[in-house]
Design a protein that fits this description.
The structure is a homodimer of 407-residue chains.
Chain A: E1 2-3, H1 11-26, E2 32-35, H2 41-52, H3 58-82, E3 87-90, E4 97-99, E5 108-111, H4 114-121, E6 125-129, E7 132-135, E8 140-142, H5 147-158, E9 164-168, E10 189-191, H6 192-200, H7 208-216, E11 221-225, E12 233-236, E13 249-253, E14 256-265, H8 270-280, E15 288-290, E16 297-305, H9 309-319, E17 327-331, E18 334-340, H10 350-360, E19 367-371, E20 374-380, H11 384-394
Parallel strand pairs in A: 1-2, 1-9, 2-6, 3-6, 4-7, 9-11, 10-12
Antiparallel strand pairs in A: 4-5, 7-8, 11-12, 13-18, 14-16, 14-17, 15-16, 18-20, 19-20
Helix pairs in contact in A: 1-3, 2-3, 5-7, 6-7, 8-9, 10-11
């Protein structure tokens, strides 16, 4: 069971979560709960560091930030004791979460869970500080964004848990963002691959890396509400028995920008040079499209995080010397809308229907990018909401029938 | 170098301490600095625990409270980096501070300082989170009151440091509390035994247990100001060469109460029974006096912490059955004034002079308790200040000459 920062923000919320954990234990399950830092704690610690130094040392940032989850864990253990349960808190290090030495963004290498198993065997509820571990050179490390989700999934894998429950402030994964599409429906079941595409395409329910970890280790996830008892969304491995939705859901994002390098000579290695330059600047390119070549020159378009736009343009300017191109244009007003469905690969015509729907709305498509279970279009940011609603309607996602593969 | 919570309360104070540490390093010394939790941090963590539970689990309290010093340490390391110094923070566990399993009041069993030595050899300034360690069963422990002083002294012993500097908000140990006696003089030198008696008798400059540890391991202490450069008070082993003050200083305390059990049968084991009953109730008896016996009965008087008075009276009532005594009286208005001096044992007449001085002031002595280097009197609490001033004057403590043994 993993609980985020908003679920443990104050004493009442901690007691509420403790009752939730106690309930699971009383139902006969062995429980390991991963807890994040309380509400604003991490922000306050970061602010304290900034007060001291402009560029705080990463090793020391990890020493500092790792305290937030330890505080939540200790308080949660106290609350469980008051409910009459044995409970022990463990730091990432005590939990045997071994990471590499990349401070503030460490990767989990191994989990030596013997200590946690011993505590579970003794009948205790085990509480683990999320988002942290201990490096191969025995320093405290943190796992970076989505770290606590990753901690939970990794422990579930190491302990061979029946399920990894991610408790959050929404009740599950929806067919679309309910703030945009009121008819959005909570999805009872998704495959790891579908959730990966949803997360990569803007769904904020789960951190992408935690879904990757779950898929790679076959961990079943259950995304559900911290505050309500209802079932959430199960995310599991695809099985032949499973009926596959043609379209499971719609994700969108509006935090990217588009760069087009026009008039690039159409020859091997050109794209590689540009990508290398961007990678060297630490810029993570998402969609990349190369238009068909005409008279030996072509256009290369890509999307990058909005915050990295200036950096990306600078990196490309650096290439002006060794690489000849006609011009570079940027658009910071783009948005992305993505259709995801495991059944897509076996059902042609989905793309056509998507494009027809957007055309009927008078929404112009600037870029298209597809995978076997995903179709992404880049459009004007101001048209995202209209596009999401139109597609949700066109693919009848509000009705359970839409999940039937034989539509 | 050990710095208390007030010395690191905010960013400016942390930078100030960092400059102090950097200065020591630049003068060519290897530096290990022990840092306490910032100002109110520990109080806030305790309050958070109380919000959750009336009686928080000790193991979890230690997990919770140990974060305060870790935060200070990490921030101090950042401040030192900005001054161009290599610095690494270590938790008590990482510093190899091995303790017993008595949570919230753990005792240090051993220090495996190989990691700290390696960091020092690499030229780093070492920062250690005070007040904490790791128990023999691998749980985080805290050392209780005065814990950070003890951490500093223990590390100084383990690393065979030249000196253990305790930085505080006073400039050293004084002949008396300057708030009471304006003429009080800072003592340049004290023996461990003198400091032990001063600490036990009410001087708050150093935690008693840290002085005991320093004496037992021959660690030289230097108590000095965090905010001023001047030399403080050196506390070291007694040597024959050292000139011994007849009277080094005056300590006082007003946080105790007196209990008298009257008409106790004067036979072996009676005092033992009463002390055992009090010990079983976790009450720490300080002074114990048994008056001369008359007609086979005697009076037994003792002082206990004011907070424990009711508990002590209750414990003694429990004995009413098996132990016959005429009555029990309590006085919660007492105070103690203590003269300390390593030269006392070789200079008779100090007690007489002390009593004459108090008599001349019309101050009545209720109890007397002495050691070879200490004389303590119990008087009315309201007369403490007058007694301290009169004795400071009578023994001429304001003048350096008073330290000469051949007075």
């Amino acid at each position: 069971m993993k609980f985020g920062g908003t679920s443990v923000a104050d004493a009442d919320k901690i007691r509420n979560v403790a009752r939730r954990i106690a309930g699971a234990r009383e139902s006969g399950d062995n429980v390991v709960a991963v807890v994040s830092a309380r509400g604003k704690t991490t922000d306050q610690l970061v602010a304290a560091a900034r007060e001291i130094s402009e560029r705080p040392d990463p090793r020391e940032m990890d020493m500092l930030l790792s305290t937030g989850e330890r505080i939540s864990c200790a308080l949660m253990a106290m609350a469980l004791h008051d409910l009459g349960h044995g409970a022990e808190s463990f730091t990432g290090s005590q939990a045997g979460i071994l990471t590499d030495t990349a401070h503030t963004r460490a990767k989990i290498l191994d989990i030596k869970a013997d200590r946690l198993r011993a505590a579970l065997d003794a009948g205790s509820i085990v509480l683990v500080a999320g988002f942290q571990g201990v490096s191969t050179d025995r320093n405290v490390t943190t796992l970076g964004r989505g770290g606590s989700d990753t901690t939970a999934v990794a422990l579930a894998a190491a302990l061979d848990a029946d399920v990894c429950e991610i408790y959050t402030d929404v009740t599950g994964v929806f067919t679309a963002d309910p703030r945009i599409e009121p008819g959005a429906r909570k999805l009872p079941l998704l495959t790891h691959e579908e959730m990966l595409e949803m997360a990569a395409s803007g769904s904020r329910v789960l951190a992408l890396r935690s879904v990757e970890f779950a898929r790679n280790h076959g961990v079943e996830l259950h995304v559900r509400s911290s505050f309500r008892e209802e079932e959430g969304t199960i995310i599991t491995q695809e099985t032949t028995a499973m009926e596959k939705a043609i379209v499971s859901g719609i994700a969108h994002r509006s935090d990217e920008a588009k760069i087009t390098v026009s008039g690039v000579r159409d020859q091997p290695g050109v794209a590689a040079e540009i990508m290398t330059a961007l990678a060297d600047s630490g810029i993570n390119v998402d969609t990349i499209i190369q238009n068909v070549s005409a008279d030996g020159v072509t256009d290369l378009s890509m999307t990058v995080p909005l915050d990295d736009l200036q950096g990306a343009l600078g990196a490309i300017d650096q290439l002006a010397g060794q690489l000849d191109y006609q011009g570079v244009s940027a658009d910071d007003q783009i948005g992305k809308v993505t259709l995801v469905g495991a059944g897509m690969k076996s059902n042609p015509g989905i793309a056509a229907k998507m494009f027809r729907t957007l055309a009927a709305e008078g929404i112009n498509i600037q870029m298209i990018d597809t995978s076997t279970i995903r179709i992404t279009v880049v459009i004007d940011r101001r048209e995202i909401e209209r596009a999401v609603r139109a597609l949700h309607d066109a693919f009848d996602l509000a009705s359970e029938a839409a999940r039937r593969a034989d539509v």
